[in-house]
Amino acid sequence: FAVKLSALPNSKLSKSNQNHKQREIKRISSSIDLRPCHPSDLFNPIETMFRQVANRLLTRSTTTYSAATIRRPYSTEVATDAAAGDSDFVESWKKVVPNIDPPKTPIQYMKPRPPTPSTLPSKLTVNFVLPYASELSQTEVDMVIVPATTGQMGILPGHVPTIAELKPGLLSVHEGNDVKKYFISSGFAFVHSNSYADILAVEAVPLDQIDPAQVQKGLSEFTQKLSSASTELDKAEAQIGVDVHSALNSALTG
């Protein structure tokens, strides 16, 4: 209210508002640590106030944090006794149900990963898992090519840390002259700085187990459904079928 009043000339204010304006300006000015300023600022205390506040914000001391000071250690880097498990959890468990052995905690299933090497390694360690199975575990390979949503992405030893969303397509694992190919539905690929890659897929099938005739039949059926779909739900389901079977056909023919 005082700011609005200060912007109005006295000629447009009643006598009571003029007095109130002066009181507000005096009150605000008295709460500010006035510093030497330009003579013109004496006629505009509100502008002086904002200038002083801005000056305090700009001169406020700041602390610079480097990436090294704010980096949190990975869970696999934390020193812990996997055999003992979580001692606090075990102690609390025994207080409640002393006659039953406590269940294992996640840390007991985790294996510490080696630190980031100083030189470029020659192999890439890959873990390729599904919700119900593990296709590759701690397997050293030369390269992995995954179907990322941004396009086919090759992962070599020493790759920068990356998280990539996967789409239906061909995943190939290269080890020398041996190439294993899988068709995956979707998932994520996590590439770590220590030449480890974790690939998590919703569904995966070895490419040599897919029948090309069934793929062509499914593509034809879903294409027909898409052209005759009458609702948005039917169109969406048919489009998904077309996309998946098109990706299957490309993986088989490519």
TrEMBL record:
Keyword vocabulary terms for this entry: ATP synthesis, CF(1), Hydrogen ion transport, Ion transport, Membrane, Mitochondrion, Mitochondrion inner membrane, Transit peptide, Transport
Coiled coil: none
Pfam family, one: ATP-synt_DE_N
Domain of life: Eukaryota
Annotated ATP synthase F1 complex delta/epsilon subunit N-terminal domain residues: 124-201
Function: Mitochondrial membrane ATP synthase (F(1)F(0) ATP synthase or Complex V) produces ATP from ADP in the presence of a proton gradient across the membrane which is generated by electron transport complexes of the respiratory chain. F-type ATPases consist of two structural domains, F(1) - containing the extramembraneous catalytic core, and F(0) - containing the membrane proton channel, linked together by a central stalk and a peripheral stalk. During catalysis, ATP turnover in the catalytic domain of F(1) is coupled via a rotary mechanism of the central stalk subunits to proton translocation.
Assembly and binders: F-type ATPases have 2 components, CF(1) - the catalytic core - and CF(0) - the membrane proton channel. CF(1) has five subunits: alpha(3), beta(3), gamma(1), delta(1), epsilon(1). CF(0) has three main subunits: a, b and c.
Name used for this protein in its record: ATP synthase subunit delta', mitochondrial
Organism: Cynara cardunculus var. scolymus (Globe artichoke)
